[in-house]
Amino acid sequence: MAETAASELIIPQLIVGLGNPGAKYDRTRHNVGFEAIDILARRWQITLSENRKFQGFVGEGRGSHQDKIRLLKPSTYMNLSGQSIRAVIDWFKLPPESVLIIYDDMDLPVGRLRLRQSGSAGGHNGMKSAIAHLGTQNFPRMRIGIGNPKGANGGETVSHVLGRFAPAETQVIQDVMQLVVEATELSLKQGIPKAMSLYNNREVVLQP
Length: 208
Prior knowledge:
It contains 7 helices and 7 strands; from the N terminus they run αβαβββαββαβααα.
């Protein structure tokens, strides 16, 4: 029984952060996925370099679990992220379920993260592209809460996700990124379900 359970563990082999390339999008709410990849790359001493074949910035090295791990920041712009992800998994012959995608979520408040083993795009254009190009919803994802402007219309929503965090939120996001690192490293060592059980209910509280 133990062997069966171990074989069913979902251990990421490719970690993707979603975002938009270019200085004007740096540190915006929509780019928290990029920020997470940058932090993991520094922590694991993995160099990210632009690769036109993969349409993104890619790095390969050893994760905290000491096995091979690949990191990716697509440079296609958010709506075409799946093209880059598909190119990488085809080249390295990775199954879709080994891809962990980290991205922003307006439905979660700032201070929360949520891990899932599968699911819909939930209206997120980057995830719509990923699902379309991977041909499945059955791959793990980590959503980072960026909050939702109350009663926002379409224009306000765009300005919200492409805006930067308020000063008080910036500290919260830094603390959330620490949880992202911890949850990711636990996923690599003990699988996504274990990380879900420990981190889906954690919250960093915004100080008044």
